[in-house]
Queue: 4 jobs
Job 1
Amino acid sequence: MEEILNQLGGLVLGSVPTMILFILLVISYGLLVRRPLDRLLAERRKRTTGAVEQARGAIAAAEAETTVYEDKLRKAKAEIFQARDQKLKQWNAEREAAIEQVRQATQQRILAAKQEIEQSAATARTQIDTTSAELSSRILAAMLPVGVTQPEEVTR
């Protein structure tokens, strides 16, 4: 057993420089590779997360601007429709006014024409009455013998 322990002691003593080199290698790995790599990964993570958050912020800002633009567009459309409706109402009112003027002018012409027709009819009646009285007296004069006098009603 002593021999085994002596061999183990020799092996441990022979492996001490290897252990020291291994420990130095681990420490140098930690100092030279691991820490800069961790810093680099942390910075990359930070930049990536920052870029993602910045992209989300830009998307949110774009959505807000889109909403504002849509509201402005909606308001502009409403104003255009209101202006169009007002123009249509104005044109309809102007058309109705023009139609009413034409209607009144036509009614005045109709009334003037009716009055003219009534005056013509009255003039024609008086002419007919006078000519009928003349004709009746001529007819009576032609039909009655020469010595008979005409009744007074007929001459009127």
Note: The CA atoms of residues 32 and 113 lie 118 Å apart.
Job 2
Amino acid sequence: MGGFRVTGTARDTDWQAWQESWDRQQEWYLPDREERFRVMLDMVEAFAGPEPRVLDLACGTGSITDRLLRRFPKATSTGVDLDPALLAIARGSFAGDERVTFVTADLKDPGWADRLPHDSYDAVLTATALHWLHSEPLAALYGQLGGLVRDGGVFMNADHMPDTDTPRINAAERARRHAVMDGARAGGALDWADWWALAAKDPVLAGPTAERFRIYGEHADGDTPSVRWHADTLRAAGFGEARAVWSSPSDSLVLAVK
């Protein structure tokens, strides 16, 4: 993997190279990933202006935080996640940046929000993450977010939200997407398993990677409910309005306003 320096110490690890590698791996699955981030930040600006206080929920390596701060240099971000390997990359990438705080917490723990540095946020953002949760704990999480987002603030979730009423459309989209992915794979793109195999061999990330697989297992076992389910559940959680503000053939970005 080009760009990596194997030194065995966190101080000398090329965290930016790991960030970029994670982005490329995610883009193999989500070629329109940057477009959803752009729309997400457009809506943050529309509701909260250029200096928002943001909660990056299930933040991973800090992909949302990275784009947030590049677009809004006066923004602040709290990233929360349980994955020790992805959090190691996030903390290494943003070390010394006083605008960013990272918190280790399990979103299925009813008391996870007690660890946050703030009681409320202008925007809570998450992408390609909450499908790790089943519908019941996700609904409970949405209820907690109803108390974290300030009045007039927003929550946004970009994820796979299929419509089971359109099976032929779903099948055609999936077939085409996988054909494109197979072509990229033949050209050397890393998939999920490849990326984690590299992390497991890195002297600094090997330990955190082993721990993350003890926590999560190999793959998500959660649910992928429809846009309608997300919108209805968010309104029941105390948000005044909720609907999709962006969609691709496979994914959607749901926005809820407090």
Note: The chain has a mean pLDDT of 94.
Job 3
Amino acid sequence: MANNSDVKSLLDAGVHFGHLTRKWNPNMAPYIYMERNGIHIINLYKTSAKLAEATEALRNIAASGRKVLFVATKKQAKDIVAQHASDANMPYITERWPGGMLTNFVTIRKAVKKMATVDRMKKDGRYETLSKKERLQVDRMRAKLEKNLGSITEMTRMPAALFIVDTVREHIAVKEALKLGIPIFAMVDTNANPRDIDYVIPSNDDASKSIDIIVKEATDAIQAGLEDRKSEKNAEDQAKEEKEAKVAKEEKEAKEAAKADKKAAKEEKATAETTAKDEEE
């Protein structure tokens, strides 16, 4: 059941404003509360419930050590998504979606390696041996790759899920994720089709305040998942240390016991020898 305070914060952020009724997607009907002045109004109680479901799943993904790729190339969402995704240490795409980003991931990784090669050239001095024209070409290539792929340079494997702002605009990302069976979390407005989305968050995907509150909820859940993972790892490390300490203690006690037995046997042998000598005398 949705919490009223959650619904109020969503209302204040304008999450309930959908698109013009003539632009609606009929599949969004279950999430629409009413029509007002030619605009569909989203049911925020359903938004709150769906958001809670999505954040729980995101927390579990983060706790398992996997990555969530955030995608938002529209102007009002770019900076917001970049900031929150960076805070959660998650990769993001806020420029043009590189075609084949998921379906041709090997090629994308090669482009990322080109960036790393240029960086190594600058460190080991090879960059300075290039002509002025060659350096300019290398710098332009590096800058272009940085703009398009800079945020995913640390993503060495496929993401566990995608979080998308505006599925209509990011339809290529949606298609690639569907093709590969990658779960999709998304802010879905009244003009979009929710049927292809695994975790639908019915919401206004145009207003910056609406985008900010939803994306922040998502990244906060991811950060909580990372904390869960850290706590679990610390607990495992502590348990391992305790086990190792116990084993070391048992080994020490066993050695001391063996030493004591050896000493006792030696003393017993010496006593027996002394007794035998006395009897002979």
Note: Helices lie at 4-12, 44-63, 75-87, 105-124, 132-149, 171-180, 208-280.
Job 4
Amino acid sequence: MSGGVEIERKFLVARLPVLEGLKSKPVRQGYVTLEGDSIELRLREKGGAYFLTLKSEGGLARMEREIEIERAQFEELWPTTGGRVVEKTRYVGALADGTGFELDVFAGALAPLVMVEVEFDTVEAALAFTPPDWFGADVTEDRRYRNRALADNGVPGRPG
């Protein structure tokens, strides 16, 4: 089980970096809770592992608790997502300064959306971060770009 506070910034991607050589995994996640609920409960299949994740409301910093579950448990719960699903390929890499990033290339109805997330140890580090030029608009506080909102509503228009 992992848990604690997740501190991350999320950006649209202005220019796709070279993906060759980056580790990647297919990700399928579905949402049990609806947009507007006070918490987010999701099921995630990532590279053959299965997880149940609970997240609080928030933007830059949110509480997150995740437990690994068995495939049978995942399959039993999956219908509760009601089709509120996100499918993507997640690429994991590091920026020139060593800061890690996760780049999501969305599939299906959410294609050709591409976003990148960077996690931090402190809010101060997150606020001090200067994104590289291939990062686009910062959508950290734009609720329309949360995966749950994307699963419910599809790709939004321009970030606002």
Note: The beta strands are 2-13, 23-31, 39-46, 49-56, 61-69, 85-94, 100-106, 114-119, 135-138.
